[in-house]
Amino acid sequence: MFDYYQLTVPVYTRALKQLAHILDKAAEYAAAKKVSDETMLGLRLAPDMFSLVKQVQIVCDNAKFAVARLSGTQAPKHDDSENSFAELQARIAATLRFVESLPQAAFVDAEKRTITLPFMPDKPMSAEFYLLSFVQPNLYFHLSTAYAILRHNGVDVGKSDYIGEM
């Protein structure tokens, strides 16, 4: 049996803090190079991929919706209207506050939940499948992509910025 709290709250807290850290480095880079937030947040790896701003929004959404669905609580609403590094940092901070607000007791019986996503109403998932095969890969895909966008465009970030202190 999984400890759904341990597999989400501390893991997502760490991931969100590292995302905030690499965005700090990106903001510093942008200021030094006189590149606008709009330009930086619009960066992408390929024309058909989401931009940096969308990658960050999706990381936050994966974290908040996962803990909400697994704990049976309501996730906060975000309007996806961030246009600056400061606004993205505020979104990350709000997501962190929500994720960290959930006590371990909220995840009791999480394994018994069936998760049905609004955009896939005909494909209900067990909590285990949802967490391990849907949320985790998605969260880390978008986190890695945000990192890769910044690294590809000259921001001085390395693996330790992504992983964090050990």
Automatic annotation (TrEMBL):
Domain of life per record: Bacteria
InterPro entries, sorted: DinB/YfiT-like (IPR034660), DUF1993 (IPR018531)
Protein name as it appears in the record: DUF1993 family protein
Source species: Deefgea chitinilytica
